[in-house]
Amino acid sequence: MHELGIMADVLDTAIEVAEKHGASKVTKITLKIGVMSGIMPEYVQSFFDVISKNTIARGAKITIDSDPAVFLCRKCGEQTVYEALGPEYVCHHCGSPALHLQSGYGFQIVSVGIV
């Protein structure tokens, strides 16, 4: 349920952007969420809708760009990419489970649409 706290920070940032540019409304927010971030994309919009209802961001559409998990195999040195969470992670090249996560664990506000 840490999505609620994260979305509260997103709301604060979106409102700051709107105020800085003299806008009266936040219309859209694009987020980049890593597959391995622990953030459940299916909860993001609903939490945002609840906490933004009495703000200039009310009704803003949240768009999510997924950031795949990229692993480096410690056995063969090849990269393996996972687009979604899985029950296990193994190298697609040699089958080794000895993987090092290189990317796909982050969270970023990509853009804020305002009018």
Task: Give the tags.
115 residues; alpha+beta; hypothetical protein PF0899 fold; 3-stranded mixed sheet; 3-stranded antiparallel sheet
What do these coordinates show?
With 115 residues, the protein is α+β, with helices and mostly antiparallel strands. The protein has one domain: hypothetical protein PF0899 fold (2-Layer Sandwich). The chain has helices at 3-20, 41-51; strands at 26-34, 61-67, 69-73, 79-82, 99-103, 107-114.
Question: What is this structure, in a nutshell?
Answer:
The chain has 115 residues and is α+β, with helices and mostly antiparallel strands. The chain has helices at residues 3-20, 41-51; strands spanning 26-34, 61-67, 69-73, 79-82, 99-103, 107-114. The chain has one domain (3-114): hypothetical protein PF0899 fold (2-Layer Sandwich).
Report mean pLDDT, rounded to a whole number.
Answer: 97
Query: Care to count the β-strands?
Result: 6
Helicity level, as a percent range?
Answer: 25-40%
**Helix-strand string:** HEHEEEEE
Number of helices: 2
**Radius of gyration from the alpha-carbon trace, in angstroms:** 17 Å
CATH class: Alpha Beta
Low-confidence stretches: none
Percentage of residues in strands: 25-35%
CATH topology: hypothetical protein PF0899 fold
Task: Write the SSE topology.
Blueprint: H1 3-20, E1 26-34, H2 41-51, E2 61-67, E3 69-73, E4 79-82, E5 99-103, E6 107-114
Parallel strand pairs: 1-2
Antiparallel strand pairs: 1-6, 3-4, 3-5
Helix pairs in contact: 1-2
